[in-house]
Amino acid sequence: MAANKLDQEHELIARIVAGDEKAFTTLFFNYLPVLQSFALKFTKSDIAAEEVIQDAFLRIWLNRDKLESVENVKAYLYKFVSNECLSYLRKSLRETKILENARLNQQTSSNDTIDTINLNEINALVTVAVSKLPHQRRKIYLLSRVEGKNIQEIAEMLNLSTNTVKNSLVSALKSIRIYLVSHGISLVILYFIVI
Q: Which part of the chain is CATH 1.10.10.10?
């Protein structure tokens, strides 16, 4: 920088330190083009680069008394702008993580809701299918699946042979599966459901 320009800049700085806003505006516009392209390399956004520079210059204004001891104004301004760029990038990264976590949580809860709805639908269909079973078969199914009784216990309770209970249970399960499949529940899903 030429001696004359350097003197002008020192004079400008002295006025800024004294609180001269016009001098500060001049400094801002003198360095805006180079600082803007510098900030743009970091932020990859014109709007973000503008915000970064405004924040940097606000800090410079608030700390203008420190300008007195500054030897290289350009380097000083670059330091402020690069600090603001780093803050912007950190904040941006945090926001991206927060949004990503929110999206994942929403997706998970949405999937849970869908799973719950599907399970509720299947349970409702099973209830209807069970209600359509012949009386004894229905009783055997309920004792086995709802009350958790084993074949031997059911046979003793109903005074039936274990073979009769076993065959009735197999027939009941087959009827329920056929009913569910006829209502669009795939066989793959049935493997994961204890009917």
A: 132-191
State in words which class domain 3-98 has: mainly alpha
Whether this model's pTM surpasses 0.70: no
Torsion of CA 132, 134, 139, 141, to 10 degrees: -70
Token look-up 């929403």 returns 106
Amino acid type, 152: Q
State pLDDT tens for residues 59-112: 889 889 888 888 888 888 988 888 888 888 888 777 777 667 666 665 554 454
Q: Which fold has domain 132-191?
A: Arc Repressor Mutant, subunit A (1.10.10)
Half-sphere exposure of residue 184: CA atoms within 13 angstroms, side-chain side: 2
Helices (H), 18-150: 21-43, 46-62, 73-131, 135-145
